[in-house]
Amino acid sequence: MLTYFLIAVLVFTTNVIPFFMPATWTVLSYIAVAYSIPVLPLAFIGAVFATLGRATLAKLSQTIIREKIISEKTRKNIDVIKKQLEGKKTLTVGVVLLYAFSPFPSSQLFIAYGLTKMKLRYIVIPFFFGRLCSYTFFAFSATRIVRAFFPFSLNHLFSWYFLVSQLLTIVTVYLFAKIDWQELLKHKKLKFV
């Protein structure tokens, strides 16, 4: 039981901290391989606490970044995209679900969503189900591949992919806040505020 509690704390923490944290699927894959933890409970705990961590990150980005850091002009700009997304809730849910099946980092998605102040249920429910499936797949695949072909080490978690993805996450969040959404949506012109 203590093992699962520690995994939950680790997964939650890595999902609240938005940058320079290893992808959850790599952490869970490592744990599955290194400690022979059963994949299904590991994936379930991973999905629950990754979702809670990302929801917390969205709320923090709303209360800290939106309310205290960015300007009123930038807030109004972000409200343009909020208005567009609110009319397309099914599309939002579908896109998040598809994204959650992938191994790509999700911190920028939750930060951007938090900046819009939209209801979290449209993002956390599909995220949970998508990550549950993807974590199960990746952890199961990792255990099979590693045992069959090569030893696994912690150094693989901090590869060039990890560093590049974290830098791209920072750039993506910055650009999201700086795009003039009114201009882009109305006139189809990319402009920055």
Mind explaining what this structure looks like?
By secondary structure, the protein is mostly helical. The protein has one domain (2-187). It has 9 helices and no strands. The chain has helices at 2-16, 24-35, 39-69, 72-86, 89-100, 107-116, 121-149, 160-178, 181-187. Helix 2 (24-35) runs antiparallel to helix 3 and helix 2 (24-35) crosses helix 7. The chain starts with a helix and ends in a 6-residue tail after the last helix.
What's a quick, concise take on this entry?
The chain contains nine helices and no strands. It has 193 residues and is mainly α. It has one domain (2-187).
End-to-end distance: 50 Å
**Strand percentage:** under 5%
Summed up, the domain count is: 1
Number of strands: 0
* Biggest beta sheet summary: none
Q: Give the integer mean of the pLDDT values.
A: 88
The helix count comes to: 9
Give the helix proportion (percent range).
over 70%
Indicate the radius of gyration in whole angstroms: 18 Å
**What's the shape?**
elongated
> Which series of helices and strands comes N to C?
HHHHHHHHH
- Spans of at least 5 consecutive residues whose pLDDT stays below 50 are none
Helix-and-strand structural type: mainly alpha
